[in-house]
Design a protein that fits this description.
Length: 261
């Protein structure tokens, strides 16, 4: 589906990003992948092989997105798409319920999860406009952006940032559709990634998820659950799709979820 497509994956060396990168390579894409941990970068390079260039960089620095886009153009000749995955929990910075969120917790969480999307999308848009041939951007948000679950998942700076991704993406989709630039959003439910380890290992949350994400026996998602959608949105099969928010949440957004007594 992606034969010779030239793509950048920001945050593509672990978890959701690495799983997607592998799927994109399997479908014929050539990639530039960015990660911020040396061990993840080394492992991703081994996993992805010669079809990918893996870079070490921090997505919170705007120059990193520019470098990744530039590397894709220099190495492969052009840019066809961007998948922005980079982000993460802000709990370690002080995120939580808003009355308890520290100034640093707010600033760091929003920078990691929303500002980084602005940097990467800006770099991709500039390149698409230079090329004059359109392109596809897919941004990763979260189901908590529009279907909160305060009992177990009350991190308000994170929710605000993920909702901001949706607002930004829809605005970009509207602004650049005439240039054949598509912008779409994927909003997963609770997924088994390094970021979600706290929740994935909590038996109380596991019990809740069995009713909150009831599809396929009631389970936490795995990264591979998103891969098919990523491939599709990057492909020409989605050439008439823009400005959409697609939940991959096992039913989270349409169920109440039952708390244990």
């Amino acid at each position: 589906m992606l034969d010779q497509k030239r793509l950048v994956v920001m945050g593509g060396t672990s978890g959701l990003g690495l799983s997607a990168a592998r799927a994109l390579v399997r479908e014929g894409a050539r990639l530039v992948v960015v990660g911020h941990l040396e061990e993840d970068v080394a492992r991703a390079g081994e996993v992805l092989g010669a079809s990918a260039r893996v870079l070490l960089g921090d997505a919170t620095e705007p120059a990193v997105s520019e470098r990744a886009i530039g590397e894709c153009v220099d190495r492969f000749g052009s840019l066809d798409g961007l998948y922005h995955v980079a982000g993460g929990s802000g709990r370690r910075f002080g995120d939580g319920r808003l009355d308890q969120v520290s100034d640093e917790g707010w600033d760091q969480t929003v920078r990691l999860n929303l500002t980084t999307v602005g940097w990467s999308n800006r770099a991709a848009l500039r390149q698409f406009l230079r090329q004059g041939q359109g392109g596809s951007i897919v941004n990763l948000s979260s189901v908590v952006a529009y279907r909160p679950s305060p009992g177990h998942f009350a991190t308000h700076a994170y929710a605000a940032a993920k909702a901001g991704i949706i607002g930004l993406s829809l605005s970009l989709a509207a602004s650049y559709a005439a240039q054949n630039i598509r912008v779409n959003v994927i909003a997963p439910g609770l997924t088994d990634t390094p970021m979600a380890r706290r929740a994935a290992q909590d038996p109380v949350i596991q019990s809740f998820i069995r009713t909150k994400q009831p599809l396929d026996g009631g389970r936490i998602a795995v990264p591979e659950d998103l891969d098919g959608l990523v491939v599709f949105l990057m492909s020409d099969g989605a050439k008439f799709i823009t400005g959409q928010v697609v939940g991959v949440d096992g039913g989270w957004s349409v169920t109440e979820g039952q708390y244990g007594q």
